[in-house]
Amino acid sequence: GRITRALVRNAEDFGAEQPSESKTSGNSAQEVGLAIQTKYKKMKAIPIGERLVARRSHIHGWGLFTKIDVMKHDPVVEYMGEVICRAIGDKREKDYEVSGEGSCYMFRLDLNRIVDATKIGSMARFMNHSCDPNAYARIIDVESEKASEKKIVVIANRNISAGEEITYGESSSA
């Protein structure tokens, strides 16, 4: 199907690519989780309209462009939309094809849940796939007062300059 099947790395892998944050402490899962949460909260503190813009892309249709410099390993955007079960996602994918909807903006959250941003979602849905991406998707756990919640976050795999188009792919450089 056309549901994005991008490889998303586990939160435990996050610290392995950030030696400056992992050398001093042994890189426990808890410390890695705290580093992710801190960067996520810092990103979310800046309104999306101040960080990103959707505009025409030379790659395909619309694209997502950054208005600010983004450092390697920092989150760029959260992929948001309606969380649905896999069966509904499969049905919608077929319905979107039949209706001529054109593009289908779905990301797999886990084995049973999919985030569908086709009709309801953030600017992240305008990202284009690339064979040489500057970002990748990762599922992280975000703690709140209520509970821990899984989020799909797009992470820079290299420094990205203001004005560049954000592209994602299945691989990343360490």
Q: Would you kindly provide a written description of the structure presented here, covering whatever features stand out?
A:
- With 174 residues, the protein is of the alpha+beta class.
- Helices cover 22% and strands 33% of the residues.
- The chain has helices spanning 19-22, 29-44, 48-51, 86-99, and strands at 52-56, 62-66, 75-79, 81-85, 106-108, 113-121, 128-129, 135-143, 148-156, 165-169.
- A hairpin with a 4-residue loop joins β5 (106-108) and β6.
- The longest helix has 16 residues, at 29-44.
- The radius of gyration is 16 Å and the shape is globular.
- The chain starts with 18 loop residues before the first helix and ends in a 5-residue tail after the last strand.
Quick structural gist:
The protein has helices spanning 19-22, 29-44, 48-51, 86-99, and strands at residues 52-56, 62-66, 75-79, 81-85, 106-108, 113-121, 128-129, 135-143, 148-156, 165-169. With 174 residues, it is an alpha+beta fold. The strands form 2 sheets. Strands 1, 2, 3, 7, 8, 9 and 10 form a 7-stranded mixed β-sheet that branches.
Spatial shape: globular
Structural class, from secondary structure content?
A: alpha+beta
Query: Level of helix content?
Result: 10-25%
The largest sheet, given as strand count, sense and whether it forms a barrel, is: 7 strands, mixed
Total number of beta strands: 10
**Helix and strand pattern:** HHHEEEEHEEEEEE
Mean pLDDT score = 80
Rg from alpha-carbon coordinates: 16 Å
Distance between the termini: 29 Å
Give the uncertain stretches in residue-range form: 1-25
- How many helices does DSSP assign? 4
- Estimate what percentage of residues fall within beta strands: 25-35%
